[in-house]
Request: fold
Amino acid sequence: MKEKNHLFSATGIPSLFLIFGVLMLVILSLLGYGTSRQDLRSSSLSLEQTSAYYNACSEAADFYSDLVQTLEGFQAQAKSERAYYQLVSDYLNSQENVEWNSEEHTAEYVKAFSDTQSLAVKIVVFWTDCTADSTASATAAFDNVASDNVASDNAASDNVVSDNAASDNVASDNASSDDAASDNAASDNAVSDTINAGLDVTSSNIAGILSWNTVVTADWNPDNSQSVYKGE
Reply:
């Protein structure tokens, strides 16, 4: 009996611990494998969702760039505000995923990037009277040329009179004429900078982005799988 008990204690107890340890390792391995699979699936879904969102943003940015270039062509082509917005309406109504509001002069670009979410971009379209700006700039340039000619004629007559005067007066008149010429040059440069700034037509005064956000397109479906106590 003593030999049998000694044999069980020598081989049976370590075997039980070994079997228990192997079972624990197998269970932990299965739990870790299940968790890894779940994390991989969540990461894949997140990657797909993020990639789809940024692809939709890239398409929306391309649409905005093309719209700005098209509006620049319409502004150069149209002669009135009504004709301009008619061209814009015809163009945007022919585009996919775009809804044009003729009253507010806004275009809403909606691009679905998943079954439940879409990218919505709202753009406002402006009208800039380029003809009036060109006419005003041409008139200002003509006035500047006329004023420069008058100033040059007056300077010439002053030089003739100053030549007949004393040498000191000649020197002072020459200094005055140099100062007047420098002032006229500075004023001409300032006027030309103002005219160029008025003719600078950028995308900010043609179309502007009012909103850029993500909207949920699916209905909310509550989870009714668990029984909830509703009271008596």
In short: The longest strand covers residues 207-216.
